[in-house]
Amino acid sequence: MTRRVRQTRMMDPRSLRRRAGILGVLGTGLVLAMLAGCGSVVASSGAAGGPLATTTTPRQVGCASVNQATAVSIRREMHFMAPVGTNPISTATHQQAAQVRALFGQLCAAVTHPARTTLMHCPADRAIEFLGTFYDSSRVLATFTFTTSGCEWVSVTAAGKTMATMVYGPAAAAAPTLATDLAAILGSPKPGMK
Fold first, then answer.
1. C-beta separation of 90 from 75 below 8 A
2. Which residues, at least 6 apart from 24, have a Cβ–Cβ distance to it below 8 Å?
3. Residue 159: what pLDDT?
4. Above 80 in pLDDT, residue 177?
5. DSSP string of 71-128, one letter each residue
6. Are 167 and 148 in contact (CB under 8 A)?
7. Is the pTM of this model over 0.85?
8. Residues in Cβ contact with 96 at an 8 Å cutoff, skipping those fewer than 6 apart
9. Are residues 98 and 33 in the same domain?
10. Is residue 2 part of a domain?
11. How many CB atoms within 10 Å of residue 67?
């Protein structure tokens, strides 16, 4: 009877050295490549103030971008039966940067100082609201809704986040010229009346 011989693999010291040498070269090359990459990032960042240094303003959205706003598109909607011969929906785009930024700033001031939630009676609610979008050239900075009749209510949405408040108490104190700034852009004495 013959016994089966179990094969064993003998380790040749020369093959181990060859493998270690190849892995060592690859590892060293990888480390050098990573270090070279780090050096190029530091050099191009302009941290030393060399010729590559730039002073670009970060592009922001929402209330952080009030001073970047150059235009606003506003749509007026009435949610009741409009008189015959009138258009309950009107849309206009305004590009006077100073007025656009003033309105944007007032809207942001109101929503960042929200009024305390309470039960309120809102008489003469004719459901007139203004829906708008603020732009920096063609880039959208924020959208807003401003309801001017009955109890004033405002919301600002940017980057998927909405802030809203009724305009009384701290919100009204923080944005005292909100209705006036909207009227200046719309060219009417009081928002919602025309």
1. yes
2. none
3. 87
4. yes
5. EEEEEEEE-SPPPTT--SEEEEEE--HHHHHHHHHHHHHHHTSPPPP------S---E
6. no
7. no
8. 185
9. no
10. no
11. 12
> Does 122 lie in the same domain as 28?
no
Q: Are residues 68 and 101 in the same domain?
A: yes
Burial 49-59 (b: 16+ CB within 10 A, else e): eeeeeeeeeee
| Cα–Cα distance for residue pair 182/132, rounded to 1 Å | 11
Tens of pLDDT, residue by residue over 97-141, are 999 999 999 999 999 999 888 777 777 656 678 999 999 988 999
Residue 75 within a domain? yes
**Size (the chain), residues:** 194
Per DSSP, the chain holds a count of helices (H) and strands (E) of 4, 6
What confidence tens digit (pLDDT) does each residue in 130-142 have? 999 999 988 999 9
Residues 43 and 53: their CA atoms lie apart, in Å, by: 10
Domain tally, the chain: 2
| Tokens at 102, concatenated | 């003033």
